[in-house]
Every structure is written in structure tokens, then in C-alpha cells.
Amino acid sequence: VPVSRVHTVIYSGASVAPASLVIRAGDAVRFRNEGSSEVWPASDPYPSHAQCPGFDAKRGLRTGEEYTLTFSTAKTCNYHSHLDSSNSALRGTIIVQ
């Protein structure tokens, strides 16, 4: 039985890294804000976040704050920062296998 892992996505303020991440069902992703502005990770599309229900931090993360979510279903989840949804540098993709 594979051991679940926690992967980290870093918001630097100017971008997210990695912008594309491949994980296994059951793994978690930690979204960490290391930038100076708040970010709000949430599933596409803006503003409904319906592509991957439950993928919504529900609020802006201040510098140093984290939001962690376990992805249990195989699917592709595109995401954005709800506070700056048109900023393509703050978009990413989680591919759950």
C-alpha cells in the first residue's frame, strides 16, 4: 500500500511553484504563502470553485500561513488565487492519479 505524501506549493508573491504538480489519490497538497500579499487558493472556475469541490481555502492566507487539502479522487484540478483570479502567474494545476 503506497504511503500518502504531503506536497508543497509555494506562493512567492509573483508566482506559484511548482505550477504543475502530479500526485497520487490520497496525497495532500500544502499551499504556503511566502509572498507579501494575501493569496486564496481555490479550484477553477472563478468564482464557483466547482471543478474540484472542497478545494477552497475559504479566505486569504497571509504571509507564512498555509492551507492543506487531501485529494482523494483521480482528476485534474486547475486552480487560481480567488483574490486575483485574472493573474495567470498565480494559477496552477494539480493532477491526481
Written description of the protein model:
This protein has 97 residues and is mostly beta strands. 0% of the residues lie in helices and 39% in strands. The strands form two sheets. Strands 2-1-4-6 form a four-stranded mixed β-sheet, with no helix packed on it. The chain has a four-stranded mixed β-sheet with strand order 3-8-7-5, with no helix packed on it. A hairpin with a 4-residue loop joins strand 1 and strand 2. The two termini are 15 Å apart. The model has no long low-confidence stretch (mean pLDDT 96).
Oligomer: single chain
Radius of gyration: 12 Å
Give the DSSP E fraction (strand runs of 2 or more residues). Answer: 35-45%
Helix proportion? under 10%
User: What is the element string, with H for helices and E for strands?
Assistant: EEEEEEEE
Q: By helix and strand content, what is the structural category?
A: mainly beta
- What strand line-up does the widest sheet have? 2-1-4-6
Average pLDDT over all residues: 96
Count the strands?
8
Q: With helices defined by DSSP (H or I, 4 residues minimum), what is the helix count?
A: 0
Distance between the termini: 15 Å
Shape: globular
Which consecutive residue ranges, at least 5 long each, have pLDDT under 50? none
The major beta sheet can be summarized as: 4 strands, mixed
